[in-house]
Amino acid sequence: MTLRSNDWFGLDDLNGFLHRSWLKTEGMTDEAFRGRPIIGICNSWSELTNCNVHFRELAAAVKRGVLQAGGYPLEFPVISLSEPLMKPTTMMFRNLMAMDVEESIRAHPLDGVVLLAACDKTQPASLMGAASADVPAIVVSGGPMLNGRWEGQSLGSCSDCFRFYDARRAGRMTDEQWAELESSLNRSNGHCMTMGTASTMACVTEALGMGLAGGAAIPAVDSRRYQLAEIAGRTIVQLVAEGIRPSDILTPAAFDNAIRVLHAIGGSTNAIIHLIALAGRCGVELGLDHFDELSASTPWMVNLKPSGKYLMEEFFYAGGVRALMAEMGDLIDPSCLTVTGRTVGDNIAGARVVDPDVIARRDDPFGPDGALVVLRGNLCPDGAVFKRTAADPRLLAHEGRAVVFEDIRDLHARVDEPDLDVDADSVLVLKNGGPIGGPGMPEWGALPIPAKLLKQGVSDMVRISDARMSGTSYGAVVLHVAPESAVGGPLALVRSGDRIRLDVDARRLDVLLDDEELAARRREWTPARRGPAAERGWRKLFLDNVLQANEGCDFGFLRGRTPETDGEVRTYSA
Question: Rounded CA gap, 546 and 552, in Å?
Fold first, then answer.
């Protein structure tokens, strides 16, 4: 096999001399690395990212596998995106991490790479960067936390965070109970154990063929997670030998498999944005309407929170993604190549559903069609998304009076005011939460139900925004409204008192105003002042280049792969 790393280490000139000499300062000899596949371990470990904090041990397991297969592992760090701690939102930095991953791979003597990722944005960012670099790659996710336990209940973060917070705001939970819950909900390493964005992206990555079969659902602290990492280390060496790259795996058919799995698992709305962005890196045409087309013929088959009852631990015990894909039958294209070097059909052969209350039978699903739908209408001409499996069914066809919040500060200032003019039939609207308006499209979309309605027993309302929401959130929430309000999308024109109609079956979202009224309001509209202009750094680059939600929120100049320049690695400069 021809090794990319030979351009660094195999040359009998000054460059080769220097590359080998400098690597030997780490205490290794020629026999350790020269002529062997050099395998990068792309590690998003950080003590600021609790989902990924166990990755030092996971990296050690990958190294074992690489060495067993005759490769040489070299671990390197990339920026890590902490979903709970990073402000204003990790979504603002997903593209930065993707660039870090891509350029770290491209610039170094790596023949293949294993990407360690778990938290929500670290997984799509790693995939996007690896797809653009197009060096043989495997994603190893960090796995979900163990189930939370409190007062005899099995709890999931953060679906139950939101539920109990509403109970506290309504006066149904004491401060002491709230403090106990804080230490009981998240009790091990790993990402959220609900079917939130991290779990969704792990499942989607496996369905795409970029993760090892059976790996998505293994709990983070289960010894089999480390066994999986060791297997990944051996497998990546074989991928290098066979010359299998992401471009061989990330085909239109692979994206269809991933989208069908996304619908079947009741996955996160965020995955739509990430898959569109990833497809753009691969040269695969993927628009919002294709998600809706596949939703119509894909049943909902996984009973996990926030749509259902169980958590990732039960999903693993029930058979995980392999069993689900096997049960989905002809909805899945079995011919797609995967990082195992085998096809999807090979990988899922013999898999079976152990518990049909967790993974439904194909002929007896939890719902006849997929979890996620795409809406169109005069409020969202470029689309919006809705997770119907997590909504109160009575709100799937609803008309109500708009209660408008101009931005997140306005929402926080007024939502719990006793005299807020709102009732259970109202439609809550949040503006300026999109890629530009947020900035960064924060997870503000699951607007809190006003406290006075919570005290009346209201548990769900129609809520609309150009923001995202956590994959662990639930409710009748319309998200990703495009174009966003900050750039003059129709959402910017909505006023309190307007009537809004949602019809999920018809895929419609409309404000009940005629074209003349909307045109008059547009003539009066001026962009909201969002504070000082971004004049430098990443924020300026982001705001100058980010695409809208329906285009994946990537940067246009990052779409497609960038081939390496012939001879660039041979250029030496002191």
Answer: 9
For the stretch 323-369, pLDDT in tens is 999 999 999 999 999 999 999 999 999 999 999 999 999 999 999 99
- Which two tokens mark 310? 């169980």
pLDDT at 573 over 50: no
Q: Are 241 and 1 in contact (CB under 8 A)?
A: yes
Q: Minimal CA–CA distance to 507: which of 324, 383, 400? A: 383
Strands 38-43 and 112-117: parallel
Q: Please say whether the beta carbons of 525 and 483 come within 8 A.
A: no
**Number of domains the chain contains:** 4
Whether residue 229 is found in the same domain as residue 115: yes
β-strand pairing of 372-375 with 384-387: antiparallel
The distance between the two most distant Cα atoms of the chain, rounded to a whole number of Å, is 79
* Strand (E) or helix (H) holding 116: strand 112-117
Are 479 and 416 in the same domain?
Answer: yes
Q: Answer whether residue 555 is part of any domain.
A: no
Residue 573 lies in a domain: no
Cβ neighbours, 10 Å, residue 523 = 6
Give dist(CA 370, CA 265) in Å, integer.
8
Place of tokens 């002191």: 574
Q: And the tokens for 97?
A: 């991490």
Here the tokens at position 415 are: 């939502």
